[in-house]
Amino acid sequence: MTEVDAVERLRAIATALPEVTEKLSHGEVSFFCRKQFVMLDDHHHGADHLAFWCAAPPGAQEELVGSDPGTYFRPPYVGHRGWVGVRIDRDPDWAEVAEVVREAYRTVAPRTLVARLDADDPR
After folding, report:
1. Are the CB atoms for 85 and 78 separated by under 8 Å?
2. Second label for 114, Cα 20 to 30 Å away, from 13, 14, 35, 93?
3. How confident is the model over 113-123, as pLDDT tens digits?
4. What is the pTM for the complete model shown?
5. What is the pLDDT of residues 61-89, one digit of tens each?
6. Domains of the chain by range and CATH?
7. Whole-number Å distance between alpha carbons of 65 and 62
8. CB–CB of 41/74 below 8 Å?
């Protein structure tokens, strides 16, 4: 999968959620549900990876980074707020990526949007 394909796959996951909009933020593709919940890290400031940074519930950053530091990392600027970085340039498990994005959405979305997500979620 090319990096362009990976970005398109991330975009499809994020924009499938209720009322998500895409905007540029700090020069990167970002996704909002009234508040930002995902930001692309397309070799940001010369980083050696294609990834995204996302909001995460309390404790999730430590758990994810501890379980798979090759995929997950503490991103600059927002890592101190609990956000997590997720590499998407190493053939990620896209079902897992989708779950991380949904959790990011749940972390920042208003309750009404979370309720819509839960009502639409076939799980």
Report:
1. no
2. 93
3. 999 988 876 55
4. 0.92
5. 999 999 999 999 999 989 999 999 999 99
6. 3-111 (3.90.1150.30)
7. 5
8. no
